[in-house]
Design a protein that fits this description.
The chain has 94 residues and is α+β, with helices and mostly antiparallel strands. It contains three helices and five strands; from the N terminus they run ααβββββα. The strands form two sheets. Strands 1-2-5 form a three-stranded antiparallel β-sheet. Strands 3-4 form a two-stranded antiparallel ribbon. The chain starts with a helix and ends with a helix.
Amino acid sequence: MTKSELIAKLAGRFPQLVAKDADYAVKMILDAMTAALTRGDRIEIRGFGSFALNYRPPRVGRNPKSGEKVQVPEKYVPHFKAGKELRERVDQLG
């Protein structure tokens, strides 16, 4: 599902919500989540899952084209862990 599909589904489910307001609500939620992760906070949505940051230490990588060694700096990457309820619901589909 894309962001625009989510906005359309939200506006369709709540007729009193104008599409522009649904767009604003989705943007605000995503901005708040981004800000929390940027601060290093963890986000937990009960029944859905949690978002946290994983640390990746610096390493020596290789340029796939030339094969030469390249220093890859340390970084933090977002990580999503599905909650128990979400895992169980998805497992029932398959």
